[in-house]
Amino acid sequence: MRNLGLLLLLMMSASAASAQDPTSDTWNVTVTPYLMGASMSGTTGIAGREATIDASAHDIFSHLQFGAMGVIAARKGAWGVGGDFIWMALGTTTENPPANIDPNQGAFAFYGLRRLSPNAEFTFGARWNILQARIGFKGPAETALEQTKQWVDPIVGLNLRTAGAGRLHARLYTEVGGFGVGSKVTWQVFPAIGFDVGKVVAVDLGYRWLDLDYESGEALTAFKYDVLTQGPVIGFVFRF
């Protein structure tokens, strides 16, 4: 886990709301806190030196100090807006050299929603990606190094879901972005099934694949992050 300072735990989740009348004049809001048992694999590099990332869900959770993640979406008629956020603080120590390593990561997505049919919705927006790392060296000097890397990816996607009034529902969210503006490419596939436990509460279970391929700078300023994050997701959907 020496590369924790460069790990980014990105998750993306779309709330599983039951189909609404596209001509409705009232706002329909869903709030979805969620958890993901993520594993990560890929490569990352600084100044031309690359390292392999191979972190299991156990590795990530064992170094977790704080985490918060969730989705909110508001729809009215055929249009809507949404946001997806995550903030993760990790921590570990090394003995050679003796130091405390405290990486933070954030991903904040903001998007518009356009209903195409009772079963399909087009999404468009952007995701702000943040990586922060602080290394505090122990000993008489007690020096510290800090670095932050951030970029924005435009994203477009399609959200497909079952319609009807049944308690069981299914959803498939797909997404692509980056387009060389931020990442060279980023993509996501996220199928899920859900069960309504009441009129305003549902539980979603799914599995997500999310890939980032980002590079910037040259020589001493070169930075690379090419990582696939995947794992099971559980979300609790609250409708208002």
Give me the secondary-structure topology.
Layout: E1 28-36, E2 39-46, E3 49-55, H1 57-62, E4 64-76, E5 79-90, E6 92-95, E7 98-117, E8 120-137, E9 144-161, E10 168-177, E11 185-196, E12 201-216, E13 223-239
Antiparallel strand pairs: 1-4, 1-13, 2-3, 2-13, 4-5, 5-7, 6-7, 7-8, 8-9, 9-10, 10-11, 11-12, 12-13
Brief summary of the model shown:
This protein is mainly β. It has a single domain (4-239), classed as Porin. It has one helix and 13 strands; from the N terminus they run E-E-E-H-E-E-E-E-E-E-E-E-E-E.
List keywords for this structure.
ten-stranded antiparallel beta barrel, 2% helix, mainly beta, 240 residues, elongated, Porin, disordered N terminus
Question: Helicity range of the residues?
Answer: under 10%
* Count of individual helical segments: 1
Stated plainly, the CATH topology is called Porin
Q: What is the H/E string?
A: EEEHEEEEEEEEEE
Approximate shape: elongated
Task: Determine Rg (CA atoms, Å).
Answer: 19 Å
The helix-and-strand class reads: mainly beta
Please give the order of strands in the largest beta sheet. 1-4-5-7-8-9-10-11-12-13
Whole-number tally of structural domains? 1
Unreliable residue runs = 1-23
Task: Please report the total strand number as a whole number.
Answer: 13
Strand-residue fraction?
A: over 45%
Annotated CATH architecture:
Beta Barrel
> Which CATH class?
Mainly Beta
Separation of the first and last Cα atoms = 42 Å
Give the overall average pLDDT.
Answer: 82
Largest sheet: 10 strands, antiparallel, barrel
